[in-house]
Amino acid sequence: MGMSLTVVAESWPIAGSFTIARGSRTEARVVVATVHLNGATGRGECVPYPRYGESVEGVIELIGSQTDWLASQTSARQARLGLLTRLKPGAARNALDCALWDLEAKQSNTPVWELAGLPAPAEAITAYTLSLGTPESMRDAAVKAAHRPLLKVKLGGAGDPERIAAVRAGAPGSTLIVDANEAWTEDLLEPCLAACRAAGVTLIEQPLPAGKDAALTGLDTGIMLCADESVHDRSTLDALATRYQAINIKLDKTGGLTEAIAMAEAAEARGLKLMIGCMVGTSLAMAPALLLAGKASFVDLDGPLLLAKDRDPGLSFNGSTIFPATSALWG
To answer: Do residues 257 and 280 lie in contact, with contact meaning Cβ atoms separated by under 8 Å?
Structure first.
């Protein structure tokens, strides 16, 4: 008897709203896959992302398409490896991959980090995201978050130099990283870079649109550039190494922890620094990614901090410090 599968959509209200260059949201819509085998259960969460052509309904259908195949599988590990060729990188494969890791851990009574040959997870400092807004509203948000050591600033194109200066004024002691979410143009590049240098920004994430970032080739900005929308799995790394100094690994892009581990190793071999990032989801989505935090120069797993309510049990936070997941949550 092989595995059985259930898949459900869930909505989690966001505290206030979450705004980036592509729009605003007041809830996080996630998909949870659960696999069952011989009395053991594993769970994985993904966040479908319209930027990559995904929808909640489409991801549920894609996960569901693996039901019959999973029914023929009796090994969580073999099923997880089989997924790499059955599904493309993306949210659907992420939910199933993480569910199968969780199932294997529960069956073997061995934590995922040990199964994966990773170091034991430790506490980590996460970035805290400030939504895109007017310079005045972003300064106010920065003042409220100024006690946090690492802030991630969402930008939107025109007016970004003023936004960057306003956030720095509101949080003079915090390390700043900024995320343009593909919103800058080549014309905006130099004034925005100048504003980032003036504010002491440490890292700039995805300044130009994916596929239109050739202007970054060999550019010496004095600030670390990090690819996000431009990078998905290992196949995209070689083209990026001349344009960026870091990559943002998100499990919803890589299609799960399995590819993310391999991608982290491949990126390090090319001299690229790592950010471990997330979509806005619950602690169930953050827990697998947290296993890679020890490899990362920057951790951005603040999804639960942006929600009005998280799962119970969820990850434990003390300010911006995240503590490793308990087995009751995942892994």
So the answer is: no
- DSSP label at 307? B
For residue 12, give both structure tokens: 């989690």
pLDDT tens for 246-305 read: 999 999 999 999 999 999 999 999 999 999 999 999 999 999 999 999 999 999 999 999
In the predicted model, what is the mean pLDDT of the chain? Answer: 96
Q: Is residue 327 part of a domain?
A: no
Tell me which of 106, 152, 250, 295 is the catalytic residue. 250
CA angle 212, 184, 300 (to 5 degrees): 95
What is the model's pTM? Answer: 0.95
Judgement on whether residues 188 and 300 belong to the same structural domain of the protein:
yes
Query: Residues 236, 215: contact at Cβ < 8 Å?
Result: no
Tokens representing 114 are 């040990």
Whole-number Cα distances in Å, 250 to 15, 141, 172, 275: 22, 25, 29, 9
Q: Please give the Cα distance from 230 to 85 (Å, whole number).
A: 22
Last residue of a domain, one of 57, 82, 110: 110
Per the residue annotation, which of 106, 154, 253, 295 is the catalytic one? 154
88 is catalytic: no
Q: What is the pLDDT of residues 155-196, one digit of tens each?
A: 999 999 999 999 999 999 999 999 999 999 999 999 999 999
As a whole number of angstroms, the distance between CA 276 and CA 293 comes to: 6
For residue 250, indicate whether it is catalytic: yes
Tell me the residue range of the domain where 252 lies: 124-322
Q: Is residue 330 part of a domain?
A: no
